[in-house]
């Protein structure tokens, strides 16, 4: 019996040493050390041993059980540490891995184009002038010679906050602010910024867009100055051989009013799909400032005259890059925006 007990003890110890993880150890416990496990069962054998050997055998059983329990606890501590070490190793950060590059943000294509266009005029001496996007009806319309019910208001569908307050539909509203600030001094300003119109969003129209506007007022300002400034602008933007064409048009705030075209940048005037086979692309609206507007601005139309022009920035981006849908510009799809760099 004693021999068998010793045999059991040595196999049980080997099994214990062979447990690889806490789950193995748990089943070892259930099989050997739990209340009806193999080690515990040896206690039942004590009664079956002849009386004279019983005391020694009983002692041996107790020793085996307690040694096995002690060995079990040692093993458990060891496996727990191993388990923790493995978890840590699995979660470890490999500090030798190369880092992910940080993407530096860039400017929006409209911002870049606004800056480029105003830059051209600033180098011709036009001073930047900004004014609020939320405007009074009179600055956006009335003082630009569009009284209430003027039919030209229909050309610019408007977001109204109330009867008097609106989102500016063009940068021309800034003309009034500048004139009232500086009259009767001569003025040479460029007015960049966002404008808003209550439009359906289509490939050709958005509810927000940027304009860059110019205004020059002085004693001897003439239509030929307008043509000179705009020809210079077209050449700065589209190349030294660029040509412009001036056509009669209508805006309430200018008289005479014109529209200015450039030679088609895609076909150089040969005629193509983009210029609808005319060889020309419409660039901007312009004219001599209407005397009524000068007067609203605080100038004496007998003493000074003005030229003004206004240009849509997103239209310019579409023209330049042969893009056929303005909606790309405000959709904020980074795949599109990143192509403009910087
Ligand atoms: N404000 C006009 C528009 O939004 C553009 C424009 C035309 C501005 C002629 C001007 C101008 O200053 O003289 O359509």
Q: What features would you highlight for this structure?
A:
single chain; 342 residues; BirA Bifunctional Protein, domain 2; 2 domains; 7-stranded mixed β-sheet; two-stranded antiparallel ribbon; 9 strands; rod-shaped; binds 3,4-dihydroxyphenylalanine
Descriptive report:
With 342 residues, this protein is of the alpha+beta class. It folds into 2 domains: 2-91, no CATH class; 109-340, BirA Bifunctional Protein, domain 2, CATH 3.30.930. Helices cover 43% and strands 19% of the residues. It contains 12 helices and 9 strands. It has helices at 2-18, 22-33, 38-45, 51-91, 109-123, 137-140, 173-182, 223-238, 291-296, 313-321, 327-330, 334-337, and strands spanning 127-128, 134-136, 165-167, 187-196, 208-218, 244-251, 254-263, 280-289, 305-312. Strands 1-4-5-9-8-7-6 form a 7-stranded mixed β-sheet. It has a two-stranded antiparallel ribbon with strand order 2-3. A hairpin with a 2-residue loop joins strand 6 and strand 7 (254-263). Helix 5 (109-123) crosses helix 10 (313-321). It is rod-shaped. The termini are far apart. The relative contact order is 0.10. The model has no long low-confidence stretch (mean pLDDT 93). The chain binds 3,4-dihydroxyphenylalanine. Residues 170, 172, 213, 251, 254, 285-287, 308-310 line the site of 3,4-dihydroxyphenylalanine.
